[in-house]
Amino acid sequence: MAEIILSQDALASNNRAASHNRQLFEQYGVLVINVMSSPGAGKTTLLEKTIEALGDRYRIGVIQGDLATQIDADRVRARGASAAQINTHGVCHLEAAMVNKVLPQLDLEALDLLFIENVGNLVCPSGYDLGEHHRITVLSVPEGNDKILKYPVMYLRTELVLLNKIDVLPYFDFDVEQAIEDLRTINPKSRLIPLSVKEETNLDEWYQWIDEVYARWPKAVG
Amino acid sequence: MSHEVALMGDMLNIVAEDMQKHGLSKVEKLKLRVGTLSHSVPDALEMAFEIHKAMKAPILTEDSALEIEVEEARAQCVICGHEYVPDHRVALCPNCGVPGGKLIAGDAIRIVSYEGV
Ligand SMILES: Nc1nc2c(ncn2[C@@H]2O[C@H](COP(=O)(O)OP(=O)(O)OP(=O)(O)O)[C@@H](O)[C@H]2O)c(=O)[nH]1
Ligand SMILES: [Mg+2]
User: Fold this and answer.
1) I need a labelling partner for B19 at 20 to 30 A (CA). Which of A202, A213, B71, B97 fits?
2) Pocket of ligand 1, candidates A193, A198, A200: which has the most ligand atoms within 8 Å of its Cβ, to mutate?
């Protein structure tokens, strides 16, 4: 039997679904941020605080990716955001088609900002475009310095790293300067903001980043 | 791991669709090219292929074979133009010593070809 050449990207169908999502987001004027991290880095806590702080400025929605539960969606709903839950039933990342399926649960017209909390995992989510405009990664101090160099594929594709839980820096030998330097050698365009969501340290720098990317976004005008 | 199982399922769907066009029904050999800086590793993809066989994927048989060609990552420095094989510090150009490198290969997974009956 002859060899049949396909030469196709394995993620071609996901990429198509992602473009479709992106088109919808643009059409409704919703800026979308994909939030990734390893489990427990503080994504949901960050989103809770962000909704509280920016709820007057932006109409915020959240899509929660979770292996099996509703817990995180309930947490952000309690802060006044509209939320949709995706249970991946064991799949370790979100895919564009999963996001598309829950969009009818959100009134896109009534949103300015949409956060997608990906499944906690530093490997799998990085390959899957969801149709987002920005990709950020939350790294937390207890995970250790070496995570950036150990997971270059994740950090190659992230434009902002929020280094969370700096309140516990005294108990860990996490070298913040080294983390910034390591990140620069993988992805010189990305930026690292050290903060503590719990102690509300330096959150303003994160909010400022949101304001900047929102203001820069052509769809936000008019 | 379940990530590679899902990914393999997507790839088998793409192949199945193409096989239909050619009037084929079973894969004899599937060839992939996997970048060293893609989000999957060959071992996990091989295991995923076996799992799909065990789950009786319609286009696979006991004898279907998977061949993976590893594509080494390559980067090129935007400052000095030097091309290199990056280590974990992907952007760090070994020639000028600054992080000016951009990946030019090795970050994707491609279905190269298949043979079928
Ligand atoms: N010390 C400290 N703890 C924090 C901080 N931010 C979050 N936490 C705690 O970290 C734990 C995990 O936080 P979550 O917000 O649930 O983390 P997550 O990333 O959403 O977790 P998954 O969705 O399960 O992956 C909780 O107990 C939080 O209270 C922080 O700045 N400092
Ligand atoms: Mg969470």
Assistant:
1) B71
2) A198
Q: Domain ranges in chain A?
A: 12-214
Chain mean position to CA A27:
21
**B39 contacts on A by Cβ (under 8 Å):** 123-124, 126-127, 153
Contact A102, A63 (CB under 8 A): yes
Sequential pLDDT tens for chain B (117 residues): 568 998 999 999 999 999 999 999 999 999 999 999 998 999 999 999 999 999 999 999 999 999 999 999 999 999 999 999 999 999 999 999 999 999 999 999 999 999 999
Total-model pTM: 0.94
Which H/E stretch holds residue B35? strand B27-35
Question: What residue ranges define each of the domains in chain B, with the CATH number in brackets?
Answer: 2-116 (3.30.2320.80)
For B97, which residue in chain A has the nearest alpha carbon? Answer: A185
* Terminal-residue alpha carbon distance, chain A: 59
The highest-level CATH class for domain A12-214 is alpha beta
